C-alpha cells in the first residue's frame, strides 16, 4: 500500500469524523450542548460547546495538513506517458515524416 493510499484513507476518516462533529452541533445552541451543558449527569460534561468547537477546528486543521502532505507524497505514476490510449493512437497513425519524392519535370 503506497503512502498516497494511506493518506487517502486517513483523509476519509477525518472527513467522516468532521461530518459527525458538525452534525452534532446545533447552530442555535439547542442541540447536544444545551442537553448536557447545564447538568452534571453525563460524567460531568459541562462545556460540550467548547469541546465541539475545539474538535471542529482540530479536525479541520488535521484535514488540511493531511491534504498538503498527500499532495507532497503523490508520485505522479499515472502520467500521460503510461497511457495505453496514447500508445494505441501513435501505433495506428501513419508516418508523417516519410520522404516525398518530387514528380519528374517534363
Question: Summarize this, please?
Answer:
This protein is an all-alpha fold and 106 residues long. The chain has helices at 3-24, 32-37, 48-73, 84-92. The chain has four helices and no strands.
Please count the helical segments: 4
The run of helices and strands is: HHHH
Instruction: Indicate the mean pLDDT.
Output: 74
Q: What share of residues is helical?
A: 55-70%
Q: Give the tally of β-strands.
A: 0
Largest sheet: none
Instruction: Give the termini separation.
Output: 71 Å
Name the beta content range.
under 5%
Query: In angstroms, what is the radius of gyration?
Result: 29 Å
Low-confidence stretches: none
Shape: rod-shaped
Structural class: mainly alpha
Written account of the structure:
The radius of gyration is 29 Å and the shape is rod-shaped. With 106 residues, it is mainly alpha-helical. 2% of the residues are buried. The protein has helices spanning 3-24, 32-37, 48-73, 84-92.
Topology:
Layout: H1 3-24, H2 32-37, H3 48-73, H4 84-92
Amino acid at each position: 500500500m503506497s503512502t498516497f493510499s494511506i493518506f487517502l484513507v486517513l483523509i476519509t476518516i477525518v472527513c467522516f469524523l468532521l461530518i459527525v462533529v458538525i452534525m452534532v452541533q446545533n447552530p442555535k445552541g439547542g442541540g447536544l450542548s444545551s442537553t448536557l451543558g447545564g447538568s452534571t449527569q453525563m460524567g460531568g460534561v459541562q462545556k460540550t460547546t467548547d469541546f465541539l468547537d475545539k474538535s471542529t477546528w482540530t479536525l479541520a486543521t488535521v484535514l488540511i495538513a493531511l491534504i498538503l502532505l498527500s499532495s507532497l507524497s503523490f508520485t505522479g505514476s499515472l502520467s500521460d506517458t503510461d497511457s495505453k490510449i496514447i500508445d494505441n493512437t501513435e501505433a495506428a497513425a501513419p508516418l508523417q515524416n516519410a520522404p516525398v519524392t518530387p514528380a519528374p519535370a517534363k
